[in-house]
Amino acid sequence: MKQHDNFGIKIDWLLVVLYALVALLGWLNIYAAVYDETANVAIWAQDTNSGKQLLWIGISVVVIVLILIMDYSIFTIFPYFFYAIAIILLIATILFAREVNGARAWLEFGPLKFQASEVAKLATALTLAKFINDYNVKFNTLKTYAISFGIMVLPIALIALQPDPGTILVFMSFLIAFYREGMDPTLIIMGLIAGLFFILTLVVSKVLLITSVAVIGLLIIGLLTHTYRKALLVFMSMLMISGFVISVDKIMTDVLKPHHQNRIRVLLDDKIDPLGVGWNIKQSKIAIGSGGLYGKGFLEGTQTKYDFVPEQSTDFIFCTIAEEHGWIGSFFLVVLYMAMLLRIIYISERQKYRFTRVYGYFVAGILFFHFMINMGMTIGLFPVIGIPLPFFSYGGSSLLSFSVLLFVLIKLDAHRNQIVTR
């Protein structure tokens, strides 16, 4: 039987402290990113990014307290309702949102605006966790795959119409939880191979690639597969990859927007668009490299605060800590994120209730993809696709959505010994 002793819940304080440290460091670096020594503006001034972020930190704390005192069953009983709301918001975004930088991603209600895709990530994670738990999903039937991927793909399809390729990529992190719950890793491997061939197709002859796929596929069939089913799977994979290679040009010209195309091409050759996207990545690398081992000191960064680095408070916030605190500061931040991710996985694995375990892996996957892609963007390993650094980048809706995502897990974990398992 469930108990409702909200004062006796066992909150994972280590994870809470890690969250608070990252949010605090983010707030300080948001201030440092646009610091003007001649203006003499306080860090909490409401007309500055740091002041606005402080307000959102306060709002997030209030929401966190509400999550911790409410009945945890809200998150285990009503995921399908949350999912329906998220889909409605995504449709509303496509129909009513203003186009900004080639995308319709923000819903506006007076002075407030937010991304429905942030709501969709939370709602989809809860919905998939409920489905996998309630139906004892083992990922061993076509029906299981169809429903699970259907739940995931519907919001992805709506987000693609905005379009927002960064968020779509983050949704791919859900495959980590699927794999933990029994999904064949072949699908993940095929996805990684498809991504690799997408990049290779832009720099290598298609004929050479398709020939290589055929040769490697035949070698695998001949040397490593011993059943008809596995041989058929390899052969079908060969056909899919070859078809994907042929269709890359179509994807680049007809699916991706021109600015998305440029960002991918710049990733492969930084001499392309040297005063546009290429300039952004170059300045980002300069800022990170100029920090050296110890950095220039707090509020002493020049590349960031003098606007050489674009979006230095949001997408490129990592440049600020790298320039001002050097390799040591950057390493400390990476350690904080790794500790947070490992703690989330530990929390997930100690659950008696499968719903919470699955949801925990979704949280870990989402945060990991955001962390990995954002860091990769700043050093030129990923195209610039507008992915914030969780709890660190400037942005109220981003901070609030990540906070809710994390503290729903903390709430469920606190009641891990009270929830009735199936």
Structure at a glance:
It contains 16 helices and 2 strands. With 422 residues, it is an all-alpha fold. One of its GO terms (cellular component) is plasma membrane.
Describe the structure.
- A hairpin with a 2-residue loop joins β1 and β2 (112-115).
- The protein has a two-stranded antiparallel sheet.
- The chain is globular and about 70 Å long.
- The protein has helices spanning 13-33, 49-69, 73-77, 79-96, 116-134, 142-160, 165-171, 174-180, 186-201, 206-223, 228-255, 258-268, 277-290, 317-349, 354-378, 396-414, and strands spanning 106-109, 112-115.
- Helix content is 67%, strand content 2%.
- It has one domain.
- The chain crosses the membrane at residues 12-34, 54-70, 77-97, 144-161, 182-201, 207-224, 231-248, 327-346, 358-385, 391-412.
Shape: globular
Radius of gyration: 23 Å
* Mean residue pLDDT: 84
Low-confidence stretches: none
Q: Spatial order of the strands in the main sheet?
A: 1-2
Total DSSP helices:
16
Q: Any chance you could write out the topology, listing elements then pairs?
A:
Elements: H1 13-33, H2 49-69, H3 73-77, H4 79-96, E1 106-109, E2 112-115, H5 116-134, H6 142-160, H7 165-171, H8 174-180, H9 186-201, H10 206-223, H11 228-255, H12 258-268, H13 277-290, H14 317-349, H15 354-378, H16 396-414
Antiparallel strand pairs: 1-2
Subcellular location: Membrane
Transmembrane segments: 12-34, 54-70, 77-97, 144-161, 182-201, 207-224, 231-248, 327-346, 358-385, 391-412
InterPro entries: Cell_cycle_FtsW-rel_CS, FtsW/RodA, RodA/MrdB
Fill in the keyword field for this structure.
single chain, mainly alpha, two-stranded antiparallel sheet, peptidoglycan synthesis
